[in-house]
Amino acid sequence: MNATAAKGETLIELVGVRKRYRFGEAAVNALDGVDLRVAKGSFVGVIGRSGSGKSTFLNVVGGLDRPSEGSVLVQGRALMGRTSDELAAYRRQVIGFIFQSFNLVPHLTALENVALPLALAGQGYFERRRRAQELLDKVGLGARTGHRPTELSGGERQRVAIARALSNDPQLLLADEPTGNLDSRTAEEIMGMLRALHAEGCTIVLVTHDRERAERYCERIVVLEDGRVKEDRTTSAALVDLSAASVEAAPPAEGA
Ligand SMILES: Nc1ncnc2c1ncn2[C@@H]1O[C@H](COP(=O)(O)OP(=O)(O)OP(=O)(O)O)[C@@H](O)[C@H]1O
Ligand SMILES: [Mg+2]
Q1: Minimal-distance CA residue to ligand 1 atom 12
Q2: Which residues have C-beta atoms less than 6 Å from ligand 1?
Q3: Which of 42, 47, 153, 224 lies 20 to 30 Å from 31 when distance is taken between CA atoms?
Q4: CA gap 173, 77 in Å, rounded
């Protein structure tokens, strides 16, 4: 995936981004002047206290929310001024989202959930099922394609969600607390999978409360506080050679 993307090139750029919410008389600056660049092919962890603006940041980058001020550029193109339909097309073509609560469609099977975005993108029945099967194989769920979300474990549900996020071959994976509902062992599996996707060339922005895992897996940590970038640094994980990682062979879980 996107292995051809030149590393180091800017993929995301935020300039003076503010997001103000009115709440009755009061106003909250969920983002309060964020300037940030994210390079293609990087794996960035965004951490910070509850309410510090992490999800707002992700939603603004993913075109789910519009900033009140400032600009967001992705692939050198501003998101500002785009219509809702254009933003939807941007999400479909460029972004893969992964959420804490998986957000799978309950009455659809794993295969159908993964195939759904491809159906929305106009892909034919057989081709999208073939692709969905391929993606479920990739995340190690080739034998669970007929299961509905309630018939899967939490970790398996998140893998289906990852397969779905990959269906459009996204430039950018945005993950909001993807391990928040998982036990430690399963969280390691999911992080191992993200690491392997990163090794394949995918750019990943991961929002998490889990500072310790972010340090181990991400190359760079951005700390938000009250809607501002409080800290921005590379981690020791940035020095690790990722060439040996693969999605199928996620690292063994610790502390199981
Ligand atoms: N729709 C909204 N209306 C009003 N205020 C909002 C809205 N969405 C978010 N906020 C406020 O903006 C701030 C940032 O919210 P955000 O969801 O980005 O935080 P977060 O860092 O993701 O928190 P958590 O770790 O709890 O998920 C919070 O103070 C929140 O109350
Ligand atoms: Mg949040």
Answers
A1: 30
A2: 21, 23, 28, 30, 48, 50-56
A3: 42
A4: 18
